[in-house]
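Fold this complex.
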Amino acid sequence: MTLLACHDLVVGWGEHSVLSDIDLEVQPNEILALLGRSGCGKSTLLRTLCGLLPPLSGEVVLFDRPLYAIGREERERLMRRIGVAFQQDALFSSMNIEDNVMLPLRELTRLPGSVMREMVRMRLELVGLANLAHRLPAHISGGQRKRAALARASILDPEIIFCDEPTAGLDPVLTADIDATLIKFRDVLGCTIVTVTHELESIRATADRAIMLAKGHVAATGTIEQLTQSRDETVFEFFHARTG
Amino acid sequence: MHTEVERRGRTALVRVRGDMAIPTARELYGTLRALCRRRDLDKVVLDFSATDRVDSAGAAVVGIMRRSLEHAGKQLEIASADERQAAALELAPPKVAHAPVEPQPTRLELIGDHALAIVATLRALGGLVADTLRQGLAVLARRRRMPAGSISTHVLLMGSDAVFIVGLLSFLLGMTIAFQGAVQLAKFGAGVYVADMVSWSMVREFAPLITAIVLTGRTGAAIASELGAMRVNNEIDALVAMGVSPVRFLVLPRLAALTIVGPALTLIATFIGIAGGFVVAAVMQNTAPATFWNHMTYRVEIGDFAQGIAKSIAFAWIIGLTGSHLGLRTGHDATAVGRSTTRSVVVSIFFIILVDALFATFISFGERT
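Structure:
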């Protein structure tokens, strides 16, 4: 089964194309990083891959189905098998953290209340927020909100989790925590993770494979070792900007 | 998923076939819970040899059952779980550490909180009024400047779009007053006094009031939501950080525009409302235009116009200050903007009616003495 793939994809906003000729296939149980400099279209591509932004042309195949060519109900069914952690957390400000994380369970499953609460507690424990379950999003820090968003995105044990800059703006300790959590999702829950990032340490710690985007196209693809040793100018600059 | 329960003395062996996942967790929960309640059991063995995938829901069910059995003095044993299943089960921590819940305030504390909130609101409103006056004086003395073109932009936004609705409502209101008045006055043979009634009530009362209500719904709500959205987006903080007064930059232009738009719309409402009254008087009572005009000019004095305009300025300031105050004090969550907008409409209308009543009381008292 094709978990996630796209062919001849052109993504962008309105009439304006940001990326073109994108071909990729995501392997089960891998962490795939979408890399590139700010403004190169990583988040736009991620939104298209996870069903939130129709492509200008080309096809996205999710769980063997053409994501943008199927009906609304079938798309909603497919979307329930994925989780998305947004860059700006997108937590509901009127709900506390526990209710935010529980929302997908309440809306999409018929589990008993005690099982739902236990699942939320487990997930909050996993992301280190168990003691903040009753706080409102406005009353916790940005890093904690990001972790709560990750907990919500993963609460249904989705087959694919899409993360948009999960570690942006976090200190090294929190970054390492989130990286460890993503690895745990992959190893324990069997999730596939597609993440957008430009944090080199994070990429090295988590990603099995990466796709480098530059100048509106895929500049390179491969394992982190392969990309680090790439002679391509853009890729080399990205990985060796600090070391010169 | 399918579960088989086998009894071996005081031990129950539960064999789960298939996935222990979200779609099947409810059934598994029911089976294990029933076993948990049985008094003739000391131990439950959960056999994973025929189990495929264990997800968070499966792990949660096992975690709950482990605690329930322990609480009842029983034991849960996991058998034949592979590495991945064991790792998934480890997600459920053995001990429950409940998140601390904030203690609920007592009734007395709640009353105290409300009283303090009212005091804080009044203080903030007083601060806004004082700051507005200070900034206004600084602008008048040319020591400070308002953003270029801001007043004219707001006058256009607040005024031009409101002319039609204010005109239409006033016309209908003038007609309604004339209808009601004509029927009642005709009983006393005083039908011709419809002109006096319509013109006097429109100038002194209804035109300022209907204009204020329309401005509250359109402009006051817009001010509260605009400033509230700016608050949520940290734009107000950005102004403060730049050393730019949010009152001078945002509140003063809107208040100045309302000071122009309020009286202007009130005058338009007055004339259109009287025209509505004339149409009814002409159709129902065959009142000649000259008769209507004579009665109107005899009854309405320049002081009545001044009173209507004074009211409209007071109402405009109530609308502007309430909208600005609630907009600037909006919280940082998504629902806060909606709350501020709703409150601005309710509070503005309350104060408009209150001030209108005060005007009526003081003026009638002054006219008697």
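The mean pLDDT of chain A is 89.
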